[in-house]
Specification:
The complex is a heterodimer of chains A (about 190) and B (about 250). Chain A has about 190 residues and is mostly helical. Chain A has helices at about 1-25, 30-50, 55-70, 80-100, 105-110, 110-120, 130-140, 145-155, 160-165, 170-190. Chain A is built from 10 helices and no strands. In chain A, helix 3 (about 55-70) packs across helix 4 (about 80-100). With about 250 residues, chain B is an alpha+beta fold. In chain B, helix 1 (about 10-15) packs across helix 3 (about 35-50), helix 2 crosses helix 3 (about 35-50) and helix 5 packs antiparallel against helix 6. The chains are: A mainly alpha (about 190), B alpha+beta (about 250). Chains A and B meet through helix 1, helix 2, helix 3, helix 4 and helix 6 of A and helix 1, helix 2, helix 3, helix 4 and strand 3 of B.
Chain lengths: ~190, ~250
């Protein structure tokens, strides 16, 4: 009962964001402010969890909304839900920030271009997230493998960090995760 | 199968497991390989339900102020109050595009139409000449080097609202942005903000900058790194310039 009303409330909020994104795409900065008021807590939460630093999260959040300002025209209301689109942008930016030290200089210089291409990939996002399927399929995996995948997702930790945390060799962790991902995909495509 | 035999590179990329060389390889593939891009999107879709599980946390107020600044570079004043939703994108104005096709006089007529919608009631336009800021709306036609009109701008001092639109939008290349500048009587460029990719924008300008937007002031658009000039003055080529004139 509660879950249904949660979902429809969520859908209602997400729906009202589409026209705002459209208005932002038309260059209306007032719409961006409205969008910020409605979504910034969610996106800041993502940045904070990933970056574990308020200063980094605040800066990343700014970058996120600047990207939204410039790239809102890439949002396709027919295909994706606004909250998903925004959240993916925020999480990607947080990962980028985490990985910057590990990348060669040339990669850092081309960061903006990769961002653009990733946004184009986002255009392929389709509406209708399958919450239950993912939960069920994750549950089909070995617990520690599912936990590792979730840690990677929520905290943006790398293979080497994962391996260290679990005190297993890097190669072992990689093959665990890869096999689990193959199973996950198979399960979700059923 | 990808070259390395790693089927799961797209998934690993989305999850954030990659670093160093592997990450650089995945990023290259995103740039060059459409099939890889689709697989990345598929994994983003599969994992999307997890996004809902992040806890929301209110950010400090300073974040929005900084965003505002980067969008319209109002360094002194905060934007006061909500900006009105009564901004109609320029291309939706009746007759606008037809007017462009029709030639200069038709253009002037339709621009007048555009500006009429912003006029305050007539009484408010009777401002004594000593007034620092004339409430009369202005426009600027921004032309490229070869005389082509690339963009035009309208400025409504009464509402401190500036709109800029490209005549035939041509978004900047990947990794670049278009930035708007005003060059006042002091000859120094002041940023008016970064344009959205759609090449239309409608922003409220801070009082300090608004006071300087008078007849004869030059507006210019330059090509800058993504997010705008890192230095605060134009660093890239100028795309178009034009002077503000009374409508």
């Amino acid at each position: 009962m509660e879950r249904n009303s949660d979902l429809s409330a969520k859908a209602a909020v997400s729906q009202s964001l589409s026209p705002l994104l459209e208005a932002v795409a038309d260059g209306d900065s007032g719409a961006l402010e409205d969008l910020y008021e409605q979504t910034s807590a969610k996106l800041y939460g993502i940045c904070l969890r990933m970056l574990r630093s308020e200063a980094e999260a605040e800066e990343t959040l700014q970058d996120v909304y600047l990207t939204v300002w410039r790239k809102a025209s890439k949002f396709d209301g027919e295909r994706a839900s606004p909250v998903t689109w925004l959240s993916v942008i925020a999480r990607n930016k947080a990962i980028d920030r985490l990985r910057r030290p590990s990348l060669p200089r040339s990669e850092i210089d081309s960061a903006a271009e990769v961002e653009d291409n990733r946004l184009s990939a986002l255009e392929l996002l389709e509406k209708g997230e399958e919450s239950d399927r993912l939960v069920d399929c994750l549950n089909e995996l070995e617990e520690r493998h599912a936990a590792a995948i979730k840690s990677a997702f929520f905290e943006g930790i790398t293979y080497s960090e994962l391996a260290e945390r679990s005190s297993v060799p890097l190669g072992t962790m990689k093959s665990w995760i890869r096999r689990s991902l193959i199973r996950l995909r198979g399960c979700m495509e059923r | 199968m990808t070259e390395s035999g790693n089927d799961m590179l797209a998934a690993e990329y989305v999850l954030g497991l990659l670093e160093g060389e592997e990450l650089a390889r995945a990023r290259n593939l995103v740039r060059q390989d459409e099939a890889f891009g689709r697989e990345v999107a598929a994994w983003a879709m599969r994992t999307a339900p997890l996004l809902a599980q992040y806890e929301a946390v209110e950010p400090p107020k300073s974040v929005w102020r900084n965003i505002e600044q980067r969008i319209s570079r109002n360094s002194q004043d905060r934007m006061i109050g909500k900006v009105g939703k009564n901004v109609v994108p320029l291309h939706r104005r009746v007759g606008f595009w037809q007017a462009l096709a029709g030639g200069a006089t038709a253009l002037a007529a339709s621009l007048a139409l555009v500006l009429v919608a912003w006029h305050r009631p007539a009484t408010q336009l009777q401002v004594p000449p000593q007034s620092q800021r004339s409430p009369q709306p202005m426009l600027a036609m921004l032309e490229s080097d070869d005389g082509e009109m690339e963009m035009f701008a309208t400025w409504n001092p009464a509402g401190r609202r500036l709109t800029v639109a490209a005549v035939a939008p041509s978004p900047p290349r990947a990794g670049r942005s278009h930035e708007l500048w005003m060059i006042g009587s002091d000859g120094k460029p002041h940023s008016m903000g970064v344009m959205p990719e759609k090449e239309m924008m409608s922003v409220k300008i801070a009082s300090s900058l608004a006071d300087r937007l008078s007849e004869g002031v030059t507006l210019a658009v330059s090509d800058e790194p993504s997010g705008g000039s890192p230095t605060g003055t134009p660093t890239g080529p100028v795309i178009a310039t034009g002077k503000l004139q009374r409508a």
